[in-house]
Amino acid sequence: MKRRIALVALLLLIAGAALALRWSPVDYAAQDRDATMAPSSAQHWTGTDELGRDRTVRVAAALLIGLAGATAAAALTTAIAGCFGVAAAFSPAWAAAVLMFLSDVFLSLPWLFLLMMARSLLPLTASPLETAVATFVVLAALGWPACARVLYRGALSLRTAEWMIQGHACGLRTRQLVRMHLLPHLRSLLLPQFLVCVPAFIVAEANLGALGLGVGEPLPSWGSMLLELDNSALLARSHWVYLPIALLVIVLLTLESFSAEGETHA
Amino acid sequence: MHSPLRSSILCAVLIVLSCSFAAGQAAPRQPGEIAWAIHYDPKTFDPAKVDEQASELVRYLTGGVLLRLNRQTQQPEPQLAQSFRISPEGTLIVFKLRAGLRFSDGAALTSADVAWSLRRVLDPATHAVVAEEFLSPAAVAIETPDALTVRVHLPTRIIGVEKIFDEIAIEPANRPSEGRVTSGPFTVADYKRGQYVRLSRNRNYWRHDAAGVQLPYATGVRLDILNNREQEISLFLRGEYDLIDTLPAEYFGIVAQKSSSAVHDLGASLNTEQMWFNQSPAAPLPEFEKAWFRNRSFRVAVSEAIHRADLARIAYNGHATPAFGFISPANAQWHSSSLKIPPESIADANRMLTAAGFHRSGNQLYDATGHAVKFSILTNAGNPARQKMAAMIQQDLAQIGMQVTIVALDFPALIERLMHKQDYDVCLLGVSNAEPDPSSMMNMWLSSSPNHQWNPSQKTPATEWEAEIDRQMQLQASSATQRIRKQAVNRVQQIVADQQPFVYLVYPNVLQAVSPQLRGVQSSILSPGPAWNIDSIRREQDRPRRGAL
Amino acid sequence: MSWPVTIAMRAGRTLLLILCAAAGTILLVRFAPGFFSDPREMDAKYAQAAQEEIDAENGQHRSVNQIAMQEAKDFLGGGFGTSRQYRVPVAELIGARIPLSALLLARGILGGWLLAICAALPVSSLRRGGLFWGLPFTILLAIPTAAMATACILSETGGPVLVLALLIAARDFKFLRSMLEGAWRSPHLLQGRAQGLRPRALVRLHILPNVLPQLCALTTLSIVTALGALVPIEVIFTVPGVGQLAWSAVMNRDLPVLVAVSLLMACVVGCAGMLSMRAPTLEAA
Known about the structure:
Number of helices of chain C: 12
Helix content of chain B: 25-40%
Structural class of chain C: mainly alpha
Order of helices and strands of chain C: HHHHHHHHHHHH
Strand content of chain C: under 5%
Oligomer: heterotrimer
Distance between the termini of chain B: 68 Å
Largest interface: A-C, 65 and 75 residues
Distance between the termini of chain C: 27 Å
Strand content of chain B: 15-25%
Number of helices of chain B: 14
Shape of chain C: elongated
Number of strands of chain C: 0
Radius of gyration of chain C: 24 Å
C-alpha cells in the first residue's frame, strides 16, 4: 500500500512538472527583465529568478532533467558497486584482494582532473543537454568505489548463508543464486547507496559547473537551484528559493517508500 | 513516546550540541588594530618580488617609498623624499631625502639605502616586475652624491615615471628582511599561512599629522585570509572587520539594509567587462567561423544587439555603468566623451548582418555559405555577475538568430585555451586597470603583445586598423605633450568603437564597505581602495596619541 | 598466517597503493587542461616579467618521466618537493595542517556515527513511522554542504565539525537503518523477544554482532565520505587544513602538493580498508 502511494506521488510529481512545462505560456529561458526576483503573481506562480525567468517552469524542467539524470546515474553507480562487490565476494581470495586494491586506488586519485579532461574533450559548442548527459555518465563512473567495499563485505557474509548452501546443493548455478537470492538480501545495502547518490549527484552536477560540465544555460539545473541556498543575499529576497529543496525531499521520500520492503514487524 | 526513541532523541541533541562551536570566528582583535580580509595568501613579503595583488597590498602597507601617488588627486606626493625634480629632458630625477629618517629597527635611512633598493629592483636576477616600467632597466644609473641626495639617470624619458617610485619600497642596504624591517607605516609582525598576516606599527615612521601626533594612528593591521564572502560579510556586520574592499554587487543591498552608512558606491571603476572574438589565424576553428569573427559587420551587429543597461541593472544589481570603450568615465583625464558608438538596436544589427551576407531562416541565422551561426562564449567559473551577463547575452543574441552556448571553466583551463592554444570562439572576461594612464595598457593594445587578446603575438599587424592602434599607442607612450597624448588615445578609442575587437559591456562600480567606527577614511577607486591612506585611519574608540610611543 | 607475515603483506599493500596513487596523480594532473597555465599571464602588468619564470618551470615538467623522477627524488629526500604556489617545502605545508584536519575528521566522524546509531537503532525497530522519524536525515541528505555551512555562518552557531557530523550521520543513517531492519527481522530475534529479552539485550547480544562485518565496512565508507567532504567544508569555513590546501592545489595545478595529498589519501584509504578486512565474517544463523 505504501509503495503504491509512493509510486502515485512520484508519478504525480513528474506529471505535474511535465504539465507545468507544457502549459506554461512562458519558455523556461524567457527573461522578463523588468520582473527579476518578483514575488508570486498570476503570471508567475512562484515568482521569478534573478534573470526574470519564471521559477515554476524552471523548477519543473530542472526536476525532470535532474531526476532523470541523477536517478539514472545513481542506479548505474549502484549497479557497478554491486557488480564489483559481488564479483569480489565470489572470486578467489587473491582476486578479491586485487579488486579491493583497485577500488582503493580509485578512491585515492584526484578524479577532478579526469573531469577536466572530459570537458576538454567535449566541443565547446556541445549543447547543454549533451554536457548534462556527459556529466551524469562521468558521475556514475566515479561514484561506485566508496560503496563497493561495503557491498563486498555484505556479499561475503551472505555467501556462506544456509540458504546459499542449500541453493548450491539443489544445483543452482552461482549466477542464479546471485540473481535470485543474494541480490534481494543485499537490498539493505543497495537501496541506501542509491538513495544517498541521488541528492549527491544533483549537487555534484552543479558543482561541476566550475569545470565547464553540468547542465548549461539556458537549461535549468536543479543542483544550481539548491546551491542558491548558500547565498544569503538571495535567501533574503525570495522564499521560493526553498522550493527545489522541498521537492527534492519529497522525491527522496517517495523513492525510499517505493523501494523499502515495508515496515519492520518485530 | 517509545522510550528508546525518547532517549535516542536526547542523545542526538546532546551530540549535536557538543559538535557545535561557533563558526567563522576571526582571530582576536588587538586594541587599535584595523582588520579586514584578503582572499588568498600573499606569495611573498619581499617588496621587490611582488607579482600579485595580495603581496602588493602588503608592500603598500609596509613599504616606505620615495613618492606616493595620492589616490584621490592622482598626483605624486613626496614621502621619504622631501622633494624631487625631473630635468626638462626627462632623463634625470633628483630626490632630496628628509632628514632624520629611520627604519623600523632604528637604523638611519640614507641615500645608500635608497640606491641599494633601486639597484636591487633593477637587477635582472631579482626579476622585479616593476623594473619593466623603466623600459631599459639595465641602462638606469644611480648616484648618491651625499647622504640625502639620490640622482637617477634614465636612458630615455618615461611618461609618468613618478608613479614607478610608488611601487619601490626602500629597504635597508644589504639587509633585505621580507617586510620585517621597513620604512613604511607598518612592518610584517606575524604570518600564519591560510589564516592571517599581522602588521604592527612602525614606531620610527617619519610622518606626523598636523597636530604633531606620530602616524600611523592604528597599532596594527590584521589581514585575515578568507575566501568565503558570506563569512566576510557576516564578520563585517559583527564588527570583526573594519572594511571590505571590492564588495560584490549582490551583497551590497543586504549590507546596506543592516548598516546603510557603511556601504559606498563610488561609481564606475577603471575596470571593464568585455567580450571578444577569436581572430587568431592559429585558432583551431573552421574557416567559416574565423570569417565571421573577422567581419567587422558581424562584431558590430553583436555589439548592437546587447542591452548593456540590462546587464548593469540585473547582473550587477544596478552597481555598474554601461560601457562602450576601454577608458572608463571615471578616468576623466583620458575618457573621450565624444565617441561615436554603434547604437543599441536589433533592427540595425539585422540590417548589418543582411548587408554582410547573412540570412535568417526561422529563428536561426545562417552565413552566406549556409552554415548556422552557432558559437560558444567562454568565461571563468566562480564569477556570478559574469555568468549572469553571459546568460543575458545568450538571450540577446538569440534575437538576431545566433545560437550561443555558455562554457564556464576554471581559470587555469581557461588560460590554456586563451593564451596557449587559442582554442575558443568568444571569450567574456574583465580587465583590471590599476592605473588611469593609458601607458599601462600597452601590453593589451600592441599587436605584437601576447596579451593582445583577440589576435596575440602578431609579427606584423594583421589589419590596417591594428597598425594604426600600434602607432597611436606608441605615440602616446613617447610624447611629453599631454595634448598629443590625449589626441592619440582618443583616436584609439574611436578605432576600437568602430571595429569592436572588444565588445565592451559594463564598467563595474567600485563598491566598498567601511565600518562607521573608522575615522579618516578617504575612499578611492584606485587600489588599495579605502585603505590607501592607512596611516591616517583609526578606529573611533582609539584616540590619537600625542608624541612618539 | 603469522603476525609478521600479515604485517609485511599489509605494509606492502599500502606501499603499492601509495605508488599507484602517486603515478596516477602525476598522469592525471600533467595531462589535465591548465597544467602549464599561470594566472599571471592574464595580468598585463605581470605577464611579461613572469613569462621567463613560467617557461623555465614548464621546461622541467614537459615529460611525465621527468616529473616522476623529480617526485621520487623529492619523496626520498623527505621534503616532498616545493609547492608551486607557495614556494615552500610541501612537507612543511602539509605537516602543519594534518593535525587540524585529523581532529576535524575524528570529531566529525565520531559525532556523525553517534548520531546515526542513536537514530538508527530505535527507528529500525519501529513497527510503523520509520519514514517519519527518518525525515530529518532525508532533509539533511538534500541540503548541500555549502548551504549547511552558510546556515551555520548566518546563525553564528555550529561549525565545520557540526556540518561534517550531520553529513556523515545523514548517509550512515540510511545504511544503518537498512542493516538493522534486516537484523530485527531475523527469526532468532523474534524468538528472543518472545522469550522476554529486553531490547537492550537484543541489540547487544544479537543485532550488533550480526551486523559487525558490515559496520566495519561502513566505517570505511564513512571515512571515505568524510575525506571527500573535508575539502568543501574546510574551504567554506576557511579551516587551514589539508582539504583547503588540496583545493587550492587543484585550482593552481600545484603538482607536488597534489601528489603529497594523494599519498596521504592512499594511506588513509588503505588503513580504512584494512579495518574492514579485519572484521570477521559471521555466518548467518
